[in-house]
Amino acid sequence: MIDWQRVTTLRTEIGEEDFEEVVPLFLEEVSEITDALQAHVDLNALEANLHALKGSAMNLGFAEFSDLCSTGEAMAASGSAASVDVDQILASFERSRTAFLNGLAKGAAA
């Protein structure tokens, strides 16, 4: 679910202080998009939304969530936006966020 090696690499690349700033920004940005998707799925904007989510997720090691966003983005790009399982993507984000925060608290990426 979480690519802890990616998280460790990011933490090393940007430093502990910046990492501590990036995590809340990432979660806030992603939450804004996921909240909007939960309220209303705009099929015309779905591809762009999933692309943004995928990039953010990849950067912070949310592997499963990133993969689901990538699949959904490709489906939307091919004209099958209505077939994207947005609920599955949103559920993956919630599970990933919980696993990520719990892992950080336990020092998984220290």
Structural notes for this entry:
The protein has 110 residues and is mainly α. It has one domain (4-105). Helices cover 76% and strands 0% of the residues. The chain contains 5 helices and no strands. It has helices at residues 4-14, 16-39, 46-59, 63-77, 86-105. Helix 2 runs antiparallel to helix 5, helix 3 (46-59) runs antiparallel to helix 4 and helix 4 runs antiparallel to helix 5. The longest helix is centred in the first third of the chain and has 24 residues, at 16-39. The protein is elongated and about 40 Å long. It starts with a helix and ends in a 5-residue tail after the last helix. The mean pLDDT is 94.
Poorly predicted regions: none
Tally of individual helices: 5
User: What is the terminal-to-terminal distance?
Assistant: 18 Å
Radius of gyration: 14 Å
Assign the structural class, choosing from mainly alpha, mainly beta, alpha/beta, alpha+beta, or little secondary structure: mainly alpha
Instruction: State the domain count.
Output: 1
Shape: elongated
Q: Please summarize the sheet with the most strands.
A: none
Task: Sketch the topology as an H/E string, one letter per element.
Answer: HHHHH
Q: Report the mean per-residue pLDDT as an integer.
A: 94
Helix fraction?
A: over 70%
Total strands: 0
Strand content: under 5%
List keywords for this structure.
single chain, mainly alpha, elongated, 0% strand, 5 helices, 76% helix, 110 residues
